[in-house]
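Appendix B, Record 12. Input sequence as logged:
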Amino acid sequence: MNMKKIIVLLIALTVTFSVKAQWVDNPASNTFLANTSADAGEIYLSTNPGNGDTYVQWNQYYANGWSPSLQRLNFVGEPQWGPDGIHPSYHTLSSWSQGVAMTATTDNAVVTCFSTDAGQSVAIKINADGTYAWGEQGVTLFNGAGGSRTEIIAGDDGGVWTLGSDYTNLYLQYVNADGTTNPIVTISDNGGQSCMFGQMTLSNDNRVFVTYEKLGSGYYTNKQIFVAGYNTDGSAFSQETLLMSTQTFQSTYIHSALSDGMGGGYVYIWHPGIGSAFNIYVFHFNQNGATTIMDTNGTAVHSSDPSNFYLNAYATVDPDSHDIILAYNQTDASTQSSYKIYINRITYLGERVWDDGILVLNNGNIACGGLRIDAFEYGGGFSLIYHKGTASGWTSSTVEAQGFDIDGNTIWNTQMCSGTYGKTGDDNSTGFHGGQNIVAWVNNSTGGLYGQNIGQNGEMGEITPPTPPTPCYAPADFEGEAAYNANLDVSYVVYSWTAPEILPLHYNLYCDEAKDIIQIDGNFTSYYQEFEPGDYIFRLTAVYEDCESDYALTPGGDDYLLIEIIDHQSVPENTYEEIVTITEIYNIKGQVIKAHDIQELSQGLYIVKGMTSSGKTVIRKIVR
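Logged structural output:
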């Protein structure tokens, strides 16, 4: 029997069969979640943010093949589906894994996805009470196409996005909450390459981005990474865009993707294609599917270093800055016998915030891995969880955790599991929901699925959910217009925007080229500023007592304004027209003046926006 197993770390622990367990605060015991075989693996976790229920899935060999079982945990860690969980057995699966996937849905259910022995991709939805929402046979995806690994992410309405492959093409399909299916999108390459290893990130308005690799045949092959965006009806809202240019490396090294919290996403991959040295490379695309890191080689987490390998990355995104934060291993290139863990932070423009990273563990010649890094749900920091080997080789390990502030400073250390038995680790952590993050593992000596929670202060067991911060609303409809006043020989820009739902303390107006930040009173929704000729990029945020908002979006959906201020000598002379209808009047600070007639103004310098008799909108500086 040839079964896929995740490699991990060894000894024994007696299985407890109580299903009334709850999260413990003792690293010597941990929480029993379900009975499993000792060779169980492929562990996935997903939490419903609405009520804190967490679903756990694992694979092991049953009469119907190497297939998944699931367990539901409430917020305090009590298993809800008995000591063995629920095992869908309607379909026969291979005796080896082609990959499974799972996600919690927004209507408090869970969907598991897998490929059957008959070569079909299937999705099964299980309600919180353990009943099958779509029947135990589930839904056959892609009209029977696919048959290889299927990816899945939850939509925002109880449905799920699914992505399958037949090793040549990718198939994308949205499954509604009631199990009805939407049109299928086929992603293929007409140039003879295969489209494979697709990943999905949820964008705005329940749309999805698919990142995928185009590659040739063979173990060593040329690879590129692309991104494209789709609506639930199968139509495209973003055309195919190249993220990673051609690199040559092993076909089995594949990319990961995650949302940036702004409608776009990050991609990261490790490979030795540049300089024959293993490194991790980061790419980013915005909510329109456009790349924001102009180097199509990506941003490396570390400077070129042929003497060491940088690999095994796992990443999270800070909800305030929207930077990606990665944890990864360093091993020496010659023997791969030294083990270190680093973290690094990279902006969506590709800037490395922490240079060549921050070393957080040097474990000498003893293995460490299973890295899981998760941002605190309201920002301000993140946790790193990892398996730390305690003897030479992959023979035993503990589970350790560290908390960091957003600058990478350690704020706490917690041992989550002190039992040095062999562990088959999870494929992901839940991330922070209600103040707690959850990981799980199988005792690969005696069997049994165990888990542990941890809070944002490093505590285990009972967690007090943090108080949500005041909503950090962003302004909207950010617009700007450049103009030139020939009488005063001045070029200037007048900006306007719509105030957010809650008025901020002030606005921050950023100018990339001037490296300048201007604070504008929170009661105003417009501003005037003089500039020399040139091209300028402006961004606007709202600043509250505890936070700064995302950038304001323009009516076209961009988070910046690109304004060209032309040299006045190149501007054709226009016939002067009197303003007959005044729409807005500003003082020299850009503040709106409540007056509709110039005669009402006191002495001073003003900016007047209005319409001429021909219907033209003009902006002029006047002296009263």
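The two ends are 90 Å apart (CA to CA).
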